[in-house]
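Long-time lurker. I teach an intro course on protein structure, and each term I like to show students one example going from raw sequence to a predicted 3D structure in token notation. This year I'd like something fresh instead of my usual example. Would anyone be willing to generate the tokens for the chain below so I can use it in lecture? Attribution to the forum is fine with me.
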Amino acid sequence: MLRVLLCAATLLACATGAASAGTLEDVQQREKLSCGVNAGLIGFASLDSRNEWTGFDVDLCRALAAAVLGDPTAVNFVETTNATRFTLLLSGELDVLVRNTTWSFSTDVGLKLDFAGINYYDGQRFMVPKTMGVSSATELSGKRICMQPDTKTAMNLDEYFARNNITYERVEVESLAQAQTLYLEGACEVFTADASSLAAIRATFKAPGDHLLLGDVISKEPLGPVVRQGDDDWADVVRWVLNALITAEELGVTSVNIDEMRESTGNPEIARLLGTEGRMGELLGLDAEWAVRAIRAGGNYGEIFARNIGETTPIGLSRGLNLQWTNGGLLYSPPFR
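-- Reply from a regular --
Happy to contribute to a lecture. Here you go:
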């Protein structure tokens, strides 16, 4: 009956097959979280040698499942592409999309989606062979650049070259995988994408050191988990699980010391985060230990970053803008109070 009333009030949502509310209840009844991830971007979401999903985005899915279901393994990972990710989310086949997806006006307002926060501050850059001998994107005039037409990457590329009064030769591709193949074959001289994607792709090359990521950042690409509009309760759950991981790092709560912190902290915000004070779990429709389980699943934000994509991994990303605000970065969670 509730679904019928919601359909009458929100015809567009029902026409797309999306539930207007109740995702939390659906996930709990199903006892499984349906999480949309990249079809294979090492460090962020990919299958390992044991055929198990691993990565930065994967760990957020697992933290969410731990918070909601009490089991970080209770996740159905759904591979998505640029072409399918929003269709799958809007149709209701996904509960949440945790994939390199940029929060922009068109994705937020135009597609009627809600971003539950930012888990990675990114920007579009260029990768070139070191033998090309260039050090700046302004030296790429006349070069062949692989790009997917009708994407924000193509838009950023056109706008950047127009601003700098330089031209390039467009080599159109259907996917990042095709762009990678053509780049390695020399059919295009330059590969452009979000910096995180370029770093992940470069890590798969036989000789990663032969390729240079130019320092120029030509766009803002705030990436974060996405849910359907119209289900504020579920958006709150996803948002505050992410915030819990970020806040845990800020306050020094880790997967190693969490039990000690829970028993002996004198910090009221840590106590609220870990459920020994207040009623935050109840307000989310969860129990008091939801954030404890989320943090235990894979660690706080810093632990997840370091393990999957940090400087000691093949991806080799520095924290940069993704440092905590207390250390000069942009990573900032609203307070737990």
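Some talking points for your students: Residues 1-20 have pLDDT under 50 and may be disordered. Residues 40 and 46 are 5 Å apart (CA to CA).
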